[in-house]
């Protein structure tokens, strides 16, 4: 609505009574009414408006530094994902080795249940807290029962 309108104060006025040096009020035209115009059309104020000062562009070095920062952040994010994936892979391998050492043969119901449970880090962490093979295999068997894998 006001996108092509600029206000520079050249046409502004303060309504009210004019005062002289003694503080006495007086009327300029004698009738006391505020003068009005019948023209309701706005004038194009772009020609009366002072021009904006020239805005200096950012130096090319700032742009280069931002690009370097953005590249480093994206590389860091990729490296973090890779490291998390490697850690996850090693954690799953360690857990599956412990499953076999605990007495669950590859291809058994317990071994299969471990492959399903160890997708979640929380289940691997719980499994690693058991100190004995008997405790680990009992936990796996209990999960098999909970999921109805024994028939």
Strand content: under 5%
Helix coverage percent: 40-55%
Which structural class do the helices and strands define? mainly alpha
Q: How many alpha or pi helices? A: 4
How does the overall form come out from the CA principal axes? elongated
Low-confidence stretches: none
Distance between the termini: 75 Å
H-E string: EEHHHH
Strands ordered across the widest β-sheet: 1-2
Biased composition (Low complexity): 34-48
Region (Disordered): 1-60
Biased composition (Polar residues): 8-20
Question: How would you describe this protein?
Answer:
The protein has a domain of 87 residues. It is built from 4 helices and 2 strands, in the order ββαααα. β1 and β2 form a beta hairpin. With 151 residues, it is mostly helical. The longest helix is centred in the middle third of the chain and has 43 residues. Strands 1-2 form a two-stranded antiparallel ribbon. The two termini are 75 Å apart. α1 crosses α3 and α2 packs across α4. The radius of gyration is 41 Å and the shape is elongated.
Element layout with pairings:
Elements: E1 18-19, E2 25-26, H1 60-102, H2 109-117, H3 121-129, H4 133-146
Region (Disordered): 1-60
Biased composition (Low complexity): 34-48
Biased composition (Polar residues): 8-20
Short description:
This protein has helices at residues 60-102, 109-117, 121-129, 133-146, and strands spanning 18-19, 25-26. It is an all-alpha fold and 151 residues long.
Task: For the structure shown, list the relevant keywords.
elongated; single chain; 151 residues; two-stranded antiparallel sheet; 2 strands; mainly alpha
């Amino acid at each position: 609505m006001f996108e092509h309108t600029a206000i520079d104060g050249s046409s502004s006025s303060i309504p009210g009574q004019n005062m002289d040096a003694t503080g006495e009020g007086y009327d300029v035209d004698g009738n006391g009414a505020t003068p009005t115009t019948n023209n309701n059309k706005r004038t194009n104020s772009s020609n009366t408006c002072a021009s904006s000062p020239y805005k200096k562009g950012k130096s090319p070095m700032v742009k280069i530094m931002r690009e370097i920062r953005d590249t480093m952040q994206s590389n860091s994010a990729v490296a973090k994902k890779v490291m998390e994936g490697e850690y996850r892979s090693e954690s799953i391998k360690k857990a599956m080795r412990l499953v076999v050492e605990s007495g669950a043969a590859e291809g058994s119901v317990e071994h299969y249940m471990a492959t399903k449970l160890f997708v979640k880090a929380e289940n691997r962490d719980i499994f690693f807290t058991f100190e004995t093979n008997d405790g680990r295999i009992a936990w796996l068997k209990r999960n098999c029962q909970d999921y109805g894998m024994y028939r």
